[in-house]
């Protein structure tokens, strides 16, 4: 009995060691710690313990580091360390709320398994580097709340698995790239809110079935109707606070449209009757140039009058103005 217990304990204690932290990965992490001047946030990163089981923000598969998450409002200063590129099995990289400066280092292209990139709420700057397009396994990229400048990267179409690209509150300029009319394998959700984007949306985007497009708070002009279409599966369109100018009467909506914000534009025409057939959860058409009777039914009358306010001549419930 005693022997059995002893043996099983031996067996159990030998389990973790067969998957203990890869020594190259451990060294890389210790270099990253040093790069940030040994901050309190990384006090658990000590050679005395196993990086896979005892270090904050680290996860491993078979002893290789697959996740690095430094997501604390801890005011770490400096650049993203080049050594990141030596964590060769990394799948998820998170360095958010950290006040990091500089750009994303080229060494990131060594991370062939990278799937998730979360770098939001830093002070990263410069154009989004085109070598990011070499990361063919990335599905999710969030660069929101940084200081990136330059264009919206046209090469997003070359990232075959991309599902979400988020870059709210940066300083990107210029138009939506023409290449966005040719997403092939995977059409990503686009969150480009609060940048300095402008120009007309390429007509070719009418072919693309986005699930979510958020362009709020830019200076886009002209037609925005290409984001809609009777056969599309689009759930969210937010074009608010731009200078879009198109006839809403002619727009056909897909059956899944639930979050629709067109407020603060120059949209004219009437509200299509079909709006009463949509599973709307959010709806805002205030501050446009719309006219005519608000169709009755569906979810439309559940929204507040201020969500219809400041149009040219809309009338009917929920507005007080009778037709
Ligand atoms: C980021 O760094 C700047 C300058 O070092 C500092 O003024 C600011 O308070 C920091 N922000 C945060 C959220 O810690
Ligand atoms: C993507 O990941 C898979 C499995 O993790 C890997 O086999 C493949 O080489 C990666 N693709 C690229 C282009 O790096
Ligand atoms: C994001 O951008 C909007 C519009 O420019 C601005 O009002 C808002 O304060 C920004 N948010 C942050 C957290 O900087
Ligand atoms: C709709 O837009 C108006 C005017 O900007 C704003 O007051 C209201 O909060 C918005 N509603 C929603 C649900 O976003």
Description:
It comes from Brassica oleracea var. oleracea. Helices cover 11% and strands 21% of the residues. It has a single domain (66-315), classed as Ribonuclease Inhibitor (Leucine-rich repeat, LRR (right-handed beta-alpha superhelix), Alpha-Beta Horseshoe). Mean pLDDT is 93; it is low at 1-17. The protein is α/β, with parallel strands linked by helices. It is elongated, with a radius of gyration of 25 Å. The protein has helices at residues 2-18, 23-35, 51-54; strands spanning 58-61, 64-70, 92-95, 116-118, 125-127, 140-142, 147-149, 164-166, 173-174, 189-191, 196-200, 212-214, 219-222, 236-238, 243-244, 259-261, 268-269, 282-284, 289-293, 313-315. The structure holds 2-acetamido-2-deoxy-beta-D-glucopyranose (NAG) (4 copies). One 2-acetamido-2-deoxy-beta-D-glucopyranose binds next to loops. One 2-acetamido-2-deoxy-beta-D-glucopyranose (NAG) binds at residues 112-113, 136-137.
Provide the structure class: alpha/beta
Radius of gyration: 25 Å
What percent of residues adopt helix (DSSP H or I)?
10-25%
Total helix count?
A: 3
Bound molecules: 2-acetamido-2-deoxy-beta-D-glucopyranose
CATH class: Alpha Beta
* Series of H and E elements: HHHEEEEEEEEEEEEEEEEEEEE
Biggest sheet descriptor = 11 strands, mixed
């Amino acid at each position: 009995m005693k022997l059995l217990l002893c043996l099983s304990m031996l067996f159990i204690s030998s389990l973790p060691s067969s998957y203990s932290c890869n020594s190259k990965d451990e060294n890389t992490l210790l270099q990253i710690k040093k790069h940030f001047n040994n901050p309190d946030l990384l006090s658990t990163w000590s050679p005395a313990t196993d990086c896979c089981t005892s270090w904050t923000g680290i996860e491993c598969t078979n002893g290789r580091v697959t996740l690095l998450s430094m997501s604390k409002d801890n005011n770490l200063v400096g650049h993203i360390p080049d050594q990141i590129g030596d964590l060769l099995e990394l799948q998820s990289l998170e360095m958010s709320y950290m006040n990091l400066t500089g750009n994303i280092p080229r060494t990131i292209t060594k991370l062939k398994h990278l799937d998730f990139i979360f770098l939001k709420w830093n002070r990263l700057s410069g154009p989004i580097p085109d070598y990011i397009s070499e990361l063919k396994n990335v599905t999710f990229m969030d660069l929101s709340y940084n200081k990136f400048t330059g264009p919206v990267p046209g090469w997003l179409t070359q990232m075959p698995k991309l599902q979400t690209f988020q870059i709210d509150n940066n300083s990107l300029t210029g138009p939506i790239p023409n290449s966005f009319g040719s997403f092939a394998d995977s059409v990503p959700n686009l969150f480009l809110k609060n940048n300095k984007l402008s120009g007309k949306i390429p007509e070719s985007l009418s072919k693309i079935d986005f699930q979510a497009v958020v362009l709020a708070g830019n200076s886009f002009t002209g037609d925005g109707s290409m984001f809609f279409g009777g056969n599309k599966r689009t759930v969210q369109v937010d074009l608010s606070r731009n200078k879009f100018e198109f006839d809403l009467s002619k727009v056909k909506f897909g059956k899944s449209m639930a979050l629709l914000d067109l407020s603060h534009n120059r949209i004219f025409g009437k509200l299509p009757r079909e709006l009463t057939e949509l599973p709307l959860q959010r709806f805002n058409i205030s501050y446009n140039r719309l006219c005519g009777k608000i169709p009755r039914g569906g979810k439309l009358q559940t929204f507040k009058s201020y969500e219809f306010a400041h149009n040219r001549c809309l009338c009917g419930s929920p507005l007080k103005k009778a037709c």
